Amino acid sequence: MANREGLRRSGMREVAQAAGVSVSTVANVLSRPSIVAPPTRRRVEQAMAAVGYVPHGPARQLRGLPSPIVGSVTLDLANPFYAELNRGIEDALSEAGCLVLACSTDLQSAKERQLLALLQEQAVRGIIISPIDPDPTALLQVSRRGTPVILIDHPRRQLDLCAVAVDDVVGGELAAEHLLSLGHRRIAFLAGAIDPGPVARRREGARRVLAAAGVDPADALVDIRMSDHPRSSVSVAAQAVEQILATRPALTAIICLNDTAALGVLEGLHTAGVRVPDDISVVGYDDLHFAARLSPALTTVHQPKHQLGRAAAELLLDEEHPDHTHREVHFRPTLRVRASTAPPPRRR
Length: 348
Hints:
The protein has three domains: 2-47, no CATH class; 69-166 and 306-332, 3-Layer(aba) Sandwich (Rossmann fold); 168-304, 3-Layer(aba) Sandwich (Rossmann fold). It has 348 residues and is α/β, with parallel strands linked by helices. It contains 13 helices and twelve strands. The N and C termini lie far apart (80 Å). Strand 8 (253-256), helix 12 (259-271) and strand 9 form a beta-alpha-beta unit. The model is unreliable at 1-9 (pLDDT under 50). Helix 8 packs across helix 9. It has a six-stranded parallel sheet, sandwiched between helices. A six-stranded mixed sheet has the order 7-6-8-9-10-12, sandwiched between helices. It has helices at 2-19, 23-31, 38-51, 57-62, 80-94, 109-121, 137-144, 168-182, 197-212, 217-220, 234-247, 259-271, 305-318; strands at residues 69-74, 99-104, 126-129, 149-152, 162-166, 187-192, 221-226, 253-256, 281-286, 299-302, 328-331, 334-336. The radius of gyration is 24 Å and the shape is elongated.
């Protein structure tokens, strides 16, 4: 053990000499990279690569040094929204010498608790999570044991944790205001079988706008749930169109919980011979990379996904500073009007 430690110190001295810095600077790059100037950090990292120096993970833990691994726990890695969000997390953390371990809860509370336990066992540097479990006990336990936890799209009013969020109530308002301005008064809100907080807040925003306009939400806004599968897959959304057309033939617009569901809705309407937007208008949510390339191009509510992920990562790194205070970073969504929305047909 002592011999290995001696070799480690020797290796650090070799890196320091190659980079033209002190051994303590090399140690800071390994343990607290955020306090080292980026040019110096890059020079040390290049020297490590040149001399073949690899920090030993277990040794870092024994010496009380933080792990370079950060856990990112999201609802569904198959959803492109989380791919873009994780890219923002990774871009920010890679600059600090960290590696992101991305996990998915598949919208299951039990799996979320299992992942939290596994990540804590690995002594990760921190956890960035979009939680599904309504019970925050597991999250709070992780935080109390010293692992920083950053929430995504989850109000921190009742939790003493940092959070980043997009105002989903405003997002729902934007979608409903746009459709009302076009003349729509019979609108479907397509949600998933499991209703995470962000989707519920979007629906609430839409209801507020309708009520403020003197339109009874109970008559104007119909909830349609994709009850066969917990995920908002394209095929399940396409199947939901059959339910919409069969039960609510007078509907003139559909607000979808996300762009993936909207893609399925467009597919289902096309199969049924329904024209978009001539017969029914469709609004998505997220503004994913494919939204502008669909036919017709999708009107959608834009979320700053990369910025959201980067802000979460920056909050996590900031937790290492002694003067850190928990806070919430807010982003405002915007509407992207494209070709999938138009005034309702007169015959309806």
